[in-house]
Design goal:
- The chain has 342 residues and is α/β, with parallel strands linked by helices.
- It folds into two domains: 16-137 and 262-340, FAD/NAD(P)-binding domain; 141-259, 3-Layer(bba) Sandwich (FAD/NAD(P)-binding domain).
- The chain is built from seven helices and 22 strands.
- α1 packs parallel to α3 (79-91) and α5 runs parallel beside α6 (206-214).
- The radius of gyration is 22 Å and the shape is elongated.
- Bound molecules: flavin-adenine dinucleotide.
């Protein structure tokens, strides 16, 4: 984890405890953080549970050092800085934060309480906002001998900080956004940077592809990884041209494997929720088919759903405010204007 990635300030040992919370938010990504902020502003006793060791979801885990250009109010902001500001906003009402804790079960008890089971214990809550993103996400593994042995010794799937890559000879594998973003972000600080991809069809953003192709990054189309070399640390890789079979040895210190992620809703599929193409179906108030259970962000779906930070935070506000009316039918869903608050 990067030193400057926000970790919970109000974390506790996990495992639930006896208190019943007004709302428990599964997932501490941007959606969950904004849901926690709104729930706090609505005076709800709030808890966030996340299976990762830090807040920030995909932004902190997958691309902390990338710029984001499409969140309101920031012409551009590093993902880790957005996590920091969103965490500050979310934590001001002092929610309970349980990190490194995976929710495995969700059961509405019929007495107005939802029981959440985790790998550390049991939590009870009047409402739940599922902001679990794409579920548990794992990098797609590279099926090349000895790669696993050298992970952490020059080979990495996740890049959470970049300082150690300065001055290094870097080889990046992949043709999507992560591979191109890292090529663009790292080539200036690296001693050299090569990007290999198995075809000439790149899936990254057009603008990024163009910038990388115009940069000193050595882009090799139709090339794949054949072998990794080094005993205690990575010393080089063998790549090959998949059209001709010709092999090349490339000396390098760092190999970034950005060949995609496998996502799985895992236990969430077993909770009795209406699932549509790996997402939880919600209505216009972000309520699922289970009473008191809402979903927002990448995990939810409805007609016209866009998986973006901006839409996720909007849905989080809706979910938290309607969760308020669920536990207090006299409360209005509309929270009033925050600018009117003293
Ligand atoms: C490389 C990359 C670049 C991107 N760039 C942009 C961009 O420029 N602009 C933009 O708008 N979007 C961008 N996105 C998409 C954006 O990151 C997502 O839309 C956003 O993260 C969704 O937020 P979320 O809070 O809904 O889910 P997530 O960020 O996925 O957070 C969900 C959290 O839930 C946790 N969780 C899941 N299951 C459980 C469980 N069972 N128990 C406990 N915790 C659980 C996960 O650990 C995770 O921390 C990008 C995505 C990637 C991968």
């Amino acid at each position: 984890m990067a030193d400057d990635v926000v970790t919970a300030e109000t974390g506790h040992a996990g495992g639930g405890g006896g208190d019943v919370f007004d709302v428990t938010i599964i997932g501490g990504g941007p959606t969950g953080l904004f849901a926690a902020f709104y729930a706090g502003m609505r005076q709800m006793k709030t808890k966030i549970i996340d299976s990762l060791p830090q807040l920030g979801g995909q932004l902190a885990a997958l691309y902390p050092e990338k710029y984001i250009y499409d969140v309101g109010g920031f012409p551009r902001i590093l993902a880790k800085d957005l996590v920091a500001t969103m965490s500050e906003q979310a934590l001001q009402y002092e929610p309970t934060v349980c990190l490194d804790e995976k929710v495995t079960g969700l059961t509405p008890d019929g007495d107005g309480i939802v029981t959440l089971t985790t790998d550390k214990g049991v939590h009870r809550s009047r409402t739940v906002v599922i902001a679990a993103g794409v579920g548990a996400f794992l990098p797609r593994k590279m099926d090349v001998p000895r790669v696993d042995e050298l992970v952490g010794k020059g080979i990495q799937y996740f890049v959470t900080e970049t300082a150690h890559l300065a001055g290094k000879r870097i080889v990046i594998v992949g043709g999507g956004d992560s591979a191109f973003d890292w090529a663009l972000g790292l080539h200036e600080k690296a001693a050299s940077c090569m990007l290999i991809h198995r075809s000439d069809k790149f899936r990254a953003h057009e603008d990024t592809i163009l910038k990388v192709l115009q940069s000193p990054v050595d882009v090799r189309r139709f090339h794949e990884l054949k072998a990794v070399h080094g005993e205690d640390r990575l010393e080089g890789v063998t790549i090959f041209d998949n059209r001709t079979g010709e092999e090349f040895y490339v000396e390098c210190d760092s190999l970034l494997l950005n060949i995609g992620f496998l996502t799985n809703l895992g236990p969430i599929k077993e909770w009795g929720l209406e699932i549509d193409k790996n997402a939880v179906r919600v209505n216009s108030t972000m309520q699922t088919n289970l009473p008191g259970v809402y979903a927002a962000g990448d995990i939810c779906t409805y007609v016209g759903k866009l998986k973006l930070i901006a839409t996720g935070v909007g849905e989080a506000g809706t979910a938290a405010n309607f969760a308020k009316t669920f536990i207090d039918p006299a409360a209005k869903a509309f929270p009033g204007h925050s600018s009117d608050m003293k």
